[in-house]
Design brief:
Distance between the termini: 99 Å
Order of helices and strands: HHHHH
Structural class: mainly alpha
Number of helices: 5
Shape: extended
Radius of gyration: 24 Å
């Protein structure tokens, strides 16, 4: 009549995360990893080993995918139902100063890149047009 230690009961599945109101992360064993390379580089940049454990990268990727999925679902419920727009994402992160600042920076950078590409294309077009006139 020996009782199992609590650690063994935990592994046997008697602990249910749903009772605590937490979201269970589904197993992604059969799914192709989308962000492994980038996450490895980010982890190294933030002080991890140059080659972090695959399990750590997989766990982090699961968290990233879960975050993106939740944000997308929430954004689809705001504004025009079924569509995700930039304004919806901004609305969702408006109270989180770090996320809001990052979104704002990324949008500003995107606009600057668009203007730079447009200017480059115009220069390239004018240069090609001048070559045609010379002939």
């Amino acid at each position: 009549m020996t009782a199992n230690p609590p650690e063994e009961n935990f592994d046997q599945g008697e602990f249910d995360e749903d009772d605590l109101g937490e979201v269970q992360i589904e197993s992604t064993a059969g799914r192709k990893r989308l962000f492994s390379k980038e996450l490895r580089c980010m982890m190294y940049g933030f002080g991890d080993d140059q080659n972090p454990y695959t399990e750590s990268v997989d766990l982090l990727e699961d968290l990233v995918i879960e975050f993106i999925t939740e944000m997308t679902h929430r954004a689809m419920e705001i504004g025009r139902t079924g569509r995700v727009q930039v304004e919806d994402i901004i609305f969702l992160v408006r109270k989180d100063a770090r996320k809001y600042s990052r979104v704002k920076d990324l949008l500003t950078m995107n606009e600057e890149l668009k203007r730079a590409r447009k200017a480059f294309d115009e220069i390239k077009y004018v240069g090609a047009e001048a070559k045609v006139k010379e002939k």
